[in-house]
TrEMBL record:
Gene responsible for this protein: RASA4B
Domain Ras-GAP residue range list: 302-512
Organism: Macaca mulatta (Rhesus macaque)
UniProt entry tagged with the keyword Zinc: yes
Positions of the C2 domain: 1-105, 116-232
Protein name: RAS p21 protein activator 4B
Keywords: GTPase activation, Metal-binding, Repeat, Zinc, Zinc-finger
């Protein structure tokens, strides 16, 4: 049994931020840290005190993490970025909110005495004496201390306090990984209740010393003649009251949800996986069909999570297309109106959304990337709604004559027609680029809808069913929010955002096959109608070719979409030399182009840039590639061996043990991550456990119906029999969880000796 922890993070928006620029505004962005390790950086929102980000992240991390901190920063082009404030959420706070922490919270001031990080290695011993016992404290080393000096390091020393007596170690220059190996002794009085305080400081010649963290030891817990040794996490000073500052630095709206899962061995989940796969293979329908029952008992709030978990489970079993086909049939069986087909947030719709992100993200980038980049680069003023035209924002035409409203509308229509035409042309040429598993799934959807709605009057319905996913739920959202689909590194400004919105509306009209209802909503979109009508013909021809795929081609090409392989990444990586003081320092960067495979990491000097989270994505990818490396080191040297010593810890031995522990467990979740079959099965089990009472009630209804002869016969097993098997599987898994060892991660060394003050 293993414990897996993950964080869902949504950084929504900020409000009432203080102005940091002379213009009376700020350029805010957020940095997210887990135990002082930066893992996320949002895009910068320019010239605002009420920024909107709307960015979502999923983070996998060790169960032993302590805090998640959100820093709001002001980006400056010519100087060091300013710190506006922060929000800190301890693990205990997140664990006390099973449904997640959600809402507005005030930013607090960033106090340097609270911005500590790292650990210190101590050996503690109480030695018996003739008159009194003596306390011996050996200060061995420290690691990952906060860099406080402009050279990117610190000059640390340790101050040990006990009963008014203070002793200090020597100063280790220019190191965040110092080694002291110094011992101090104090005389203990009988029945002493005092504590030992070990403080770490950065020595400064001309200014006051900087606080690096402290550890408080309860002397009473130490046993005579039994040495205690271990690494202790440095704690901050928390003596200042900040209640009077609440609201002065603005507020941040967050959604953060911690999920801890105890995952059993694979064999425990096999009955559940086999039962669900058996149902999908049979494709059986009726009131007791398990997939249908799961949909019925899933609330709207968690339907997306359940859909994603089921999809990943069946992807791992090679049954994704069969699972989606079954969902198509279930939804078609209860749909009588063609205009509502796949328009609700059903399990089928949510599962297809997840499927397209897993299997089609690279395809989407290939089709939309050039068009979206052109919109961002041109930054043209585009507006079709006469009530929203701002002529003053457009500029002048020839001979410096201001443009009229009619000229603005006509020029905007020309720009949008050009973008829409380019997009449709790129889409028409992309049939072969579309992954085979996506084409096969759309073919099944097209065929099922045509069988359900035959006849000439429903000729367009199969096409609209495909475009309801491809255009309305995939392409259009990516056009409106390219940052969230990793098409751009920053959010669009107001002008570009309006252009993208109008382009997305045009794509939706094409996807709706230019129906009268879609045209009537916004009559001012009429100038685009010639391009929209031409686009409908292009789109129908594209879909006809898209769904024309042979079974053998599907099987051959589907093997190329392997989600089991370790992730491979290429792109820019920034090598930097840190400048400034404090935990949030500016840096000068040197950019290199790297290429990562499962076997090698190479680089060149090719200039390129894509994503503001590039460094964190690289670290995440490297950790995922290394996860199965049996020779992975437990520690390493973050510095270089120069002259006769390591620059980080000043060790003299080049092959000596590393001074910092290897951080290999914090990763960002991406759609192309390797599947974790056991975790997905555990998440499905947990959901079913939450609706078990509803499943039992359904089972009793089916049993009564079978006795009365009112339950219709279906091929294979009776519906109530499948449900009875599922309930037995849930009971077995519950017993397996209760009988297995606790599985909680080992506590940090000697944590009982440390006082959290």
């Amino acid at each position: 049994m293993a414990k897996r922890s993950s964080l869902y993070i949504r950084i929504v928006e900020g409000k009432n931020l203080p102005a940091k620029d002379i213009t009376g505004s700020s350029d805010p962005y957020c940095i997210v840290k887990v135990d002082n390790e930066p893992i996320i950086r949002t895009a910068t929102v320019w010239k605002t005190l009420c920024p909107f980000w709307g960015e979502e992240y999923q983070v996998h991390l060790p169960p032993t993490f302590h805090t998640v901190a959100f820093y709001v920063m002001d980006e400056d082009a010519l100087s060091r970025d300013d710190v506006i404030g922060k929000v800190c959420l301890p693990r205990d706070t997140l664990a006390s909110h099973p449904k997640g922490f959600s809402g507005w919270t005030h930013l607090t001031e960033v106090d340097p005495d609270e911005e500590v990080q790292g650990e210190i290695h101590l050996r503690l011993e109480v030695q018996p004496g003739t008159r009194a016992c003596r306390l011996r404290c050996s200060v061995l080393e420290a690691r990952d201390l906060a860099p406080k000096d402009r050279n990117g390091a610190s000059d640390p020393f340790v101050r040990v306090r006990y009963k008014g007596r203070t002793q200090e170690t020597s100063i280790v220059k220019k190191s965040c990984y110092p080694r002291w190996n110094e011992t101090f002794e104090f005389e203990l009085e009988e029945g002493a209740t005092e504590v030992l305080c070990v403080e770490t400081w950065d020595w400064d010649l001309v200014s006051r010393n900087d606080f690096l963290g402290k550890v408080v030891i309860d002397i009473q817990r130490l046993q005579v003649a039994q040495p205690e040794e271990g690494w202790f996490r440095l704690q901050p000073y928390q003596t200042k009251s900040r209640q009077h500052d609440e609201g002065n630095l603005g507020s941040l709206q967050l959604e953060v949800r911690l999920r801890d899962e105890m995952v059993l061995p694979s064999s425990c989940y096999q009955p559940l996986v086999q039962l669900l796969c058996h149902e999908v293979k049979l494709g059986m329908q009726g009131p007791g069909q398990l997939i249908s029952l799961i949909e019925e008992t899933t609330s709207t709030e968690c339907r997306q999570d359940v859909a994603t978990n089921l999809l990943k489970l069946f992807l791992g079993q090679g049954l994704a297309k069969d699972f989606l086909d079954l969902l198509f049939q279930l939804e078609l069986s209860r749909t009588s109106e063609t205009n509502t087909l796949f328009r609700s947030n059903s399990l089928a719709s949510k599962s297809m959304e997840s499927f397209l992100k897993v299997a089609g993200m690279q395809y989407l980038h290939g089709v939309l990337g050039p068009i979206v980049n052109k919109v961002f680069e041109e930054k043209k003023y585009v507006e079709l709604d006469p009530s929203k035209v701002e002529v003053k924002d457009v500029g002048c035409s020839g001979l410096h004559r201001p443009q009229t409203e009619a000229e603005v509308l006509e020029q905007s229509a020309q720009t949008l027609r050009a973008h829409l035409g380019a997009l449709l042309s790129a889409l028409s040429r992309s049939v072969r680029a579309c992954p085979a598993v996506v084409r096969a799934t759309f073919r099944q959807l097209f065929r099922r809808v045509r069988e359900r709605f035959p006849g000439a009057q429903h000729e367009n319905v199969p096409f609209i069913a495909v475009t309801s996913f491809l255009c309305l739920r995939f392409f259009s959202p990516a056009i409106m929010s390219p940052k969230l689909f990793h098409l751009r590194e920053r959010h669009a400004d107001a002008r570009t955002s309006r252009t993208l919105l109008l382009l997305a509306k045009a794509v939706q009209n094409v996807g709706n096959m230019d129906t009268p209802a879609s045209r009537a909503k916004e009559a001012w979109m009429e100038p685009l109608q010639p391009t929209v009508r031409q686009g409908v013909a292009q789109l129908k021809d594209f879909i006809t070719k898209l769904v024309d795929i042979e079974e053998k081609d599907e099987l051959d090409l589907q093997r190329t979409l392997s989600l089991q392989a370790p992730p491979v990444k290429e792109g820019p990586l920034f090598i930097h030399r840190t400048k400034g003081k404090g935990p949030l320092m500016s840096s000068s960067f040197k950019k290199l182009y790297f290429f990562l495979t499962t076997e090698a990491l190479s680089f060149a000097k090719t200039p390129s840039s894509k994503c503001v989270n590039e460094l964190n994505q690289w670290l995440s990818a490297l950790r995922k590639v290394s996860i199965n490396n049996t020779g992975l080191l437990g520690s390493y040297h973050p510095g270089v061996f120069r002259g006769d010593k390591w620059s980080c810890c000043h060790q003299k031995e080049k092959t000596g043990q590393g001074c910092d522990k290897t951080r290999s467990r914090v990763t960002l979740q991406e759609w192309n991550d390797p599947l974790d079959h056991d975790l997905e099965a555990q998440l499905i089990y947990r959901h079913l456990l939450g609706v078990e009472a509803m499943l039992w009630e359904r089972h009793r209804e089916l049993s009564r119906g079978a006795e009365a002869g009112t339950v219709p016969a279906s091929p294979g097993e009776a519906p109530k029999d499948s449900l009875a098997q599922l309930l037995r599987v849930l009971q077995d898994l519950r017993e397996a969880h209760s009988s297995s060892p606790a599985g909680s991660p080992p506590s940090e060394p000697n944590c009982l000796l440390e006082l959290q003050t």
